[in-house]
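It is worth pausing here to work through a concrete case rather than discussing structure prediction in the abstract. The textbook approach is simple: state the sequence, then state the predicted structure, then interpret. We follow exactly that order.
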Amino acid sequence: MKNFKISKIVGFFALFTLGICSLYAQDNFKLPAYETFTLDNGLEVYFVVQKEVPLVHFRAVFPAGVRYDSNEKSGLADLTATALPFGTKNFSKSKIEETLDFLGASISTSASTEAATLAASFVNKDLDQVLPILVDMITQPTFPSEEVEKQLQRNIAGIDQMRESPRSVIGNYFNAMVYQNHPYANPASGTKASLSNIQTKDVASFYKRHYTPSQSVLAVVGDFDPEQMRSLLKTSFRGWTSKESSSLATQALEAPSQAQVTVVHKADARETTMLIGGIGVPRNTPDYIGIQLINTILGGRFTSWLNDELRVNSGLTYGARSGFSALKEGGTFSMSTFTANETTQPTIELALKTYQKLLEEGVDEKTLTSAKNYMKGQFPPDFETNAAIARFLTDAFVYDIPLDYIDTFNTSVNQITVQRAKEIIATYFPSEQLQMVFIGNASIITPIVSKYGLVKQIDISEDRFQ
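Step two, the predicted structure:
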């Protein structure tokens, strides 16, 4: 019995010590040491040396996002990013695939709204084999017409597949409403009509205009020798210069002047999928951490108000959430959920009632403290990997985020009071002219939502989002 008691005491103190260490780690979490420099061609470079595992993460970001698409050829940014590994001056598509597969290296390319990205992870001993391929994809892609055309046809076929899943396309309808004529309204996938207007020469032209070193950024994170890497990059990128400008005039985001409702008719729908919200904030908004804290309470975690009310308490849905999609010049705020046809009305009403509670009552101290602990607990794991650190550094460059964001995160969270939370809610969470998109059976939805704003109806089979 005595030994059992001693074991319990030892166990208690072990858990207590572990808890204290965990809290200390949360409160003292910092961005790892980094260095930054600029190559002669204007490419901004970040180095973070992490020796724990023999891996290197390489992340290059270019001013070649979806916002640079034209309406006539939307989908071009995404196609261009996808086509970077299709072949280069010195490596064929098959050679790239065979080499990277043999080495166990991973590579991905994509285009988001603001920028395009090429990311790769590999074992540090393979640097001499992997780096030349990555550099060639960035500086000398050839865009073989046969491969580009095949990808283009896949993208066109994917449009129909996307429309079978309301949750895959609802964001495009919502962005078209909120962003209106701003380039942020461009759908990454394009439309069938816009994709049909694209030729291989358009891909090469888009690359030439937008994949420019002077407005691009590269982060290298992992186990490598910084002096060796610096020398390799200087030599490798020496011939890559900015021949054309990829600048795009800043365009102010204007909040919608009236409440609007888009009903997207899907005749065979058994449920209604919805997004409700409005204009959001730029990513570098000084109150961004406070905004995320309040959103955690509303719909940013499983125990959020929206999920509790719509899923746990009422059983109207399997999930409900909210969030801010923040870009360089602005963004959106939205609440999202889905429900069976017959419960469409109570779901909408309960979602709006829950949101109204936030707007009118704010949050109390207990709720705020819980959200603070949750955010601080979730924060360190978000930046534990090489890829995550590289993503932060390139995001900081693209979105003008202060590099002390990580170091000051916990302090910023702790400083939010109940009164400050109320001010943040009043300032950043839209309360008027809400924009709503519903995908489902229009005959069921339209009579219910007509009271919320000017209603526009689109059939999901139509080749447009507005």
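Step three, interpretation. The mean pLDDT is 92. The CA atoms of residues 177 and 435 lie 7 Å apart.
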